Hints:
The protein is 30% helix and 26% strand. The radius of gyration is 24 Å and the shape is globular. The protein is of the alpha/beta class. A hairpin with a 4-residue loop joins strand 4 and strand 5 (139-149). The model has no long low-confidence stretch (mean pLDDT 96). The chain folds into three domains: 4-155 and 280-348, FAD/NAD(P)-binding domain; 168-277, 3-Layer(bba) Sandwich (FAD/NAD(P)-binding domain); 352-465, FAD/NAD-linked reductase, C-terminal dimerisation domain (Enolase-like, domain 1), CATH 3.30.390.30. The protein has helices at residues 16-25, 47-52, 54-72, 88-112, 171-174, 191-202, 222-234, 327-341, 370-375, 391-395, 424-436, 441-445, 456-465, and strands at residues 4-10, 30-34, 116-126, 129-134, 139-149, 153-155, 168-169, 183-187, 206-211, 238-241, 244-250, 255-261, 264-270, 272-275, 279-281, 314-316, 355-357, 362-367, 380-386, 402-408, 414-421. Helix 3 runs antiparallel to helix 4 (88-112). A five-stranded mixed beta barrel has the order 1-2-3-4-5. Strands 7-14-8-9-10 form a five-stranded parallel sheet. It has a five-stranded antiparallel sheet with strand order 17-18-21-20-19, sandwiched between helices.
Amino acid sequence: xxxxxxxxxIGGGPAGYPCAIRASQLGFKTACIDAWLNKDNTPxxxxxxxxxxxIPSKALLESSELYYRMRHEAAAHGIGxxxxxxxxxxxxxxxxxxxxxxxxGIKTLFAANKVTGLxxxxxxxxxxxxxFKAHDGATEVLKARHIVVATGSEPVNLKIAPFDGERxxxxxxxxxxxxxxETLGIIGAGVIGVELGSVWSRLGARTVILEALPNFLPMVDxxxxxxxxxxxxxxxxxxRLGAKVLSAKNNGKDVTVExxxxxxxSSERFEKLIVAVGRRPYTKGAGLEQIGVQLDERGFVKVDxxxxxxxxxxxxxxxxxxxxxxxxxxxxxxxxxxEQLAGxxxxxxxxxxxxxxxxxxxxxxxxxxxxxxxxxxxxxxTGLGPFAANGRAKAMEQAAGSIKVIADxxxxxxxxxxxxxxxxxxLLAEAVLALEFAATCEDxxxxxxxxxxxxENFHEAVLLVDGRAVHAVNKPKK
Length: 478
């Protein structure tokens, strides 16, 4: 029957759609249900990532960086830019075009891999049944041997600063401004807050980021995080650490934010306020609790090492199960689950998940920071390679930042690599491979890197671990 499947995936974001594609490739009759509607009510696969997160934000980050570099760096290259203009409407149009091209690509991939793509909502009914409700209201009950929940996450809505879609917005709303705000407030100096702050600050907004925690990006090696904060502050971002927001009120023309910093209460007005304090699992309407699927105290779906819930035949992947809320982590989980359903022995290495903040300079890391390594009992040795000594970075006029390698002093094994600098999002892949293959510093030291390239700086940082660098000053041995 047409409504009977081997696999039904609920959610067509970065975890769900790769799971559906791989399952179909492995011979399973597969359907993927996705509820996403863009603001013009057009359905699209790809979830938050492709429609309102990773991809549109990177498009705006790229456009705004080009604008910023033309204003501040072109002259150093001998380029006279004349009168520089900003067409925000065209910039936004390009952002949307990039996003739509990629979401349309998923439809093409579904067709090529014989996945049935369904626009609407999915609700678990139990006993291998899923109620599919299309956006036009038509309903159908699907039957499946395996049901995969990949419903993703949504922005946390603070009671003290509730979203109103006008002055107080979430990350999606912050990507759709039609004018550059004169003043912009952001609650949260995490990945999303810093990226969005960079976009609008580059385009001319006076931007203040209020972060309750005392340290900047605490998941990043402290030495690299401090350097990143220095560069971002130099660019004009006003990042206030230890600032606890008490309230936010939409006054019609602006937003008044009250906060406490260093024991003193202060208030400030902003034309727009972005709330970027994290994301929470989205399971509304999925019927999980009704059929007995267990959730933890924060609402994440509980799964075992093979993504199985406590209900036979029901699985969960991606943001909805917690851990790093990253698209690439969801992709790997989706593929791993599909292959496990086919009897393959596949697993995800959660100790080698790369993370990136797409500011300029970029911030990237994988594995342990120096602080984490010491806390785990490792005897640590480190190497710090500054981009200031890198020929390619100099030629690019982007020599800010460093690469730090953290290794075990006894085994020489690389434990983590944390970076801030030009295009470190691309350099990070080599560090991920190093962790996956349990590489030692010696392994990388014996690997030839092209010259002149940014990747040489990773090689240099590894050499610096043992005082072997020839293009940088080695730290004195103890």
